[in-house]
C-alpha cells in the first residue's frame, strides 16, 4: 500500500495526500450484498435539527459485512479486495465452496485467489477466523468479538490490531489498540492479521470541501461562541475560554467519565493510556 502526493496545480491539491489504492482490485461492488443507507441530516422525525454539524455528503450504499464468520469449516476464495465508503478499512469479497458470497474486513497481505476458512480447525494464517482458545499466544489479531456469537466489535478500523497475551481458564488476555489490556472469553472469535489500509492515517484531505463530501458540516469552535451557547464562550477579545469542557459542562482532557460500578470493569486488567 502507498500514498500519493498530488502536484499543487490548484489550492485544494497543494497539500493533498491521497491513497494509492494499490490493494484494490475492482471498483464494482457485489450487488447482492448492497443495502440502501438512509441519511437523517441530523434531523428528527419532526424535521428539527437535534445533532449539529451533520448533513450533505455523497450518497452511499451499505456493504453487508460478515462480522460473525460463523460458516465454520467451509473454505472460501478471496475474489476481490474492494473500497468501502462506510469504513476506513478495505473489504474482501469471499466466494464460499457452497456458492454463498459474503464481505469481510480485509487484512494486510490478503491476496485475491487466497483461501480463507473460519472455525476451530483453521490454521493461524492471515484472514482466517478462529476462537481465541485455538490461536497461539503472541499472535497479532483483529476483528475481535467481545461476547461469543456477537460478531467482531474491536480492532476493526484501518491499520488496527490487538495482541493475544495470555490464556487462563475460560478467559484470554488481550492488549487492545487503545493500550487497554482486557479479559475476553476464549470462545470469542478473532481474525488473524492486521486490518488493511494502514496508510489511512497519512492521508490529507487538502480542502474543506472534502469534509463536506463525507457528510460533515462546519463545526463552530466553543471559544468563539457566546456564554449562552457554551461554557467556554464569551469574554472580551480573543479569550482562551477557561477550562476545556463539553457543552454540558463536563470537563475534557483527563476527566474520567467511566462509571466506577460498571459491570465490565472487572474484565479490564489495565486501563488505556491517558
Short description:
Keywords: Ribonucleoprotein, Ribosomal protein, RNA-binding, rRNA-binding. The chain contains one helix and 17 strands.
What does this structure look like?
With 274 residues, the chain is mainly beta. The chain folds into 2 domains: 3-201, Nucleic acid-binding proteins (OB fold (Dihydrolipoamide Acetyltransferase, E2P)); 225-268, Ribosomal protein L2, domain 3 (Irregular). The protein is 2% helix and 24% strand. It has one helix at residues 208-213; strands at residues 3-5, 17-19, 34-36, 61-63, 76-82, 91-96, 101-105, 115-116, 129-131, 140-142, 144-145, 152-154, 162-168, 171-175, 181-185, 189-192, 268-270. Strand 5 and strand 6 form a beta hairpin. The two termini are 31 Å apart. The mean pLDDT is 95.
Give a quick set of tags describing it.
single chain, 274 residues, mainly beta, OB fold (Dihydrolipoamide Acetyltransferase, E2P), Ribosomal protein L2, domain 3, 2 domains, 7-stranded antiparallel β-sheet, 4-stranded antiparallel β-sheet, 1 helix, 17 strands, ribosomal protein, Ribosomal_uL2_dom3, rRNA binding, Large ribosomal subunit protein uL2, transferase activity
